[in-house]
Amino acid sequence: MSIGWKPIIENLNLNRGDFFYSRTSPTPLPAGTTAEIVWANAITWPATVDGNTVSWGVESELCGADIIPHTTRFDMFIHYPLDGGAATADFHWKTGHAMRSPISP
């Protein structure tokens, strides 16, 4: 049963080799917050959480077209600690696809 939370739909552009992405919250994130990008082909990229910023820096050898093909679906999650870290509140933050253009035949 849904409680009304819907992920943001946003595609990730992986054209340039390395992948760098970050978002900063206007309010501090709780200590112990984690985040990840989970690809449909079972690859997971954990985020770095520093203060109120969540970021990814993925080297080109880990995000090339042979590893993350064009249109591969992803889901981005953020996990806030509860009960002193014994549990987490998990939010499906974003969803979309890897985009690579121009696509050559």
Task: Record keyword descriptors for this entry.
mainly beta; 105 residues; single chain; 49% strand; Immunoglobulin-like; 6-stranded mixed β-sheet
Secondary structure layout plus pairing:
Blueprint: E1 8-9, E2 12-13, E3 19-24, E4 34-39, E5 44-46, E6 48-50, E7 53-58, E8 73-82, E9 87-99
Please provide a written account of the structure.
There is one protein chain. This protein has one domain: Immunoglobulin-like (Sandwich). It has strands at 8-9, 12-13, 19-24, 34-39, 44-46, 48-50, 53-58, 73-82, 87-99. A hairpin with a 2-residue loop joins strand 6 and strand 7. The radius of gyration is 15 Å and the shape is globular. 0% of the residues lie in helices and 49% in strands. It is an all-beta fold. It contains no helices and 9 strands. The strands form 2 sheets. Strands 1, 2, 4, 5, 8 and 9 form a 6-stranded mixed β-sheet that branches. Strands 3-7-6 form a 3-stranded antiparallel β-sheet, with no helix packed on it.
Inertia-based shape: globular
Percentage of β-strand residues: over 45%
Question: Taking Cα atoms only, what radius of gyration do you get, to the nearest Å?
Answer: 15 Å
The name of the CATH topology is Immunoglobulin-like
Helical segment count:
0
Domains, number: 1
Listing every helix as H and every strand as E from the N terminus to the C terminus, the arrangement reads EEEEEEEEE
**Extended strand count:** 9
Reported CATH architecture: Sandwich
C-alpha end-to-end distance: 43 Å
Helix content bin:
under 10%
Give a quick account of the main beta sheet: strands, pairing sense, barrel closure.
6 strands, mixed
Oligomer: single chain
Structural class: mainly beta
What is the overall pLDDT average?
90
Residue ranges: pLDDT <50 for 5 or more in a row? Answer: none
Name of the top-level CATH class:
Mainly Beta
